[in-house]
Every structure is written in structure tokens, then in C-alpha cells.
Amino acid sequence: MTIYEFPFATGKVTIDYEKCKDCENYACVKACSLFGRAILRVEDGKPVLISEGAKKRCIEDLACELYCQAYGNKALNITLDMFGLEEYRRNQTALKPKE
To answer: For residue 43, how many other CB atoms are within 10 A of its CB?
Structure first.
């Protein structure tokens, strides 16, 4: 298993590249460019930081994780030390429209 991790101000992003292999839409990168600060890009078929300094620009909006979980291959996870985050994620999953 190949894991790509990078820290940001209050947490850590973890991407499982094994799950990225079959991804066709790179939902995490799209979400970061739509809702975040566009710090991710696709390189050799995998999402990576645009530069080492980019992790300082992360606004912690969770969009990359939510989109990867909903529309991608469930490869990206964010770890935050935040009270209530797990409950929030469960609620977001419950609100997801059925396809």
C-alpha cells in the first residue's frame, strides 16, 4: 500500500494511492479547486500538492475529503483533532442524495 501524507495547520491529509489507481475523475482535486485554495494537482495519475509550501495555504474546508468519499474512490482522509467531527461526517453521509 502506498500512502501519501502531508500535514497542515491543524491536521493531516492521508491519500491511499492504491485506491487512486482506478479513479477516473479526481474528485478531491476538483473540490480543492472549486471550494479550497487549489493546492492539489494530478501528477502521474495521483493527487499531489502543487508545492511543498502549499500545505500552508490549506483552508481546512474538508471539500477534498467529502468529494473523494462521495464521488471518487474513497482514498483521501483528513485527520483533525476536532470535537464533533465524526458526528458531522455521519450527518453529511446521511444527507447525500441517492443516485
So the answer is: 10
Position 87 pLDDT exceeds 70:
yes
Rounded to an integer, what distance in angstroms lies between the CA atom of residue 89 and that of residue 91?
Answer: 5
- Closest listed residue to residue 28, CA positions, set 10, 41, 11: 41
Domains and CATH numbers, the chain: 3-95 (3.30.70)
- Global pTM exceeds 0.85: no
Give residue for cell 453529511: 92
CB 52 within 8 A of CB 61: no
Tens digit of pLDDT for each residue in 33-45? 999 999 999 999 9
C-alpha distances out from residue 6 to 57, 80, 81, 92, Å? 12, 13, 15, 24
